[in-house]
Amino acid sequence: MSAQTTFERLAPFIQDYIYQNNWTEIRGIQIAACDVIFNTECNLLLSSGTASGKSVDVVFTPHLTPMDRGILSTIYSKPVREATRDELWETLHSFYKNEPFVKIVEHLPATKDVSGTNFVHIAVRNVGNRIITVSAVDNLIKGASGAAIQNFNLMYGYPETTALI
After folding, report:
1. Is the distance from CB of 101 to CB of 151 less than 8 angstroms?
2. Are strands 120-127 and 102-104 parallel, antiparallel or unpaired?
3. Is residue 78 located within the same domain as residue 143?
């Protein structure tokens, strides 16, 4: 990736910071770091030392969020016991198996995947000693209006998915 392309992909406030500090170049190591961040679907687990000499683990989750509507949530949790990705996947599938508007997906969800629908897409990952759950909803449909239709359907004996799928 070239320095110009890397710079263009940086958030505007980072570009402003670079201009304000009169930086004249982006170093190779910075380009390499940006390449990893921009071109991965993975979360990065960073370990660092602090001034006190203690190590700190930080989970960095980049979000590129040019979106028209929707909510993208990233939820971090600590497992009570070690769990594999397959165990997490099976747990989610089992829990939501009878929920017609919940889809457990392999890819990291995006709001564009659920735009105009009543669906929520959920993905799960293990990163170090953390579980990261990512979900996407279209808050204009999955919000109060979709809930109202869904509740109406249930109250009056219609299939839950009527007028929503």
Report:
1. no
2. parallel
3. yes
Q: d(Cα 61, Cα 82) in Å, to the nearest integer?
A: 21
Find the CATH number of the domain harbouring 115.
3.30.360.10
Q: List the chain residues with pLDDT less than 70.
A: 1-7, 9-19, 21, 23-66
pTM equals 0.63
Phi, psi (rounded to 5 degrees) for 47: -110, 140
Residues 74 and 124 occupy one common structural domain: yes
- In DSSP notation, 15-74 reads HHHHHHTT-----HHHHHHHHHHHT-SS-EEEEEE-TTS-EEEEEE-------SS-EEEE
Could you tell me if residue 165 is inside a domain?
no
Q: What is the pLDDT of residues 97-135, one digit of tens each?
A: 999 999 999 988 888 899 999 999 999 988 778 888 899
My answer on whether 40 and 73 are in the same domain is: no
Beta strands at 55-60 and 71-77: parallel, antiparallel or unpaired: unpaired
Is residue 100 included in any domain, yes or no? yes
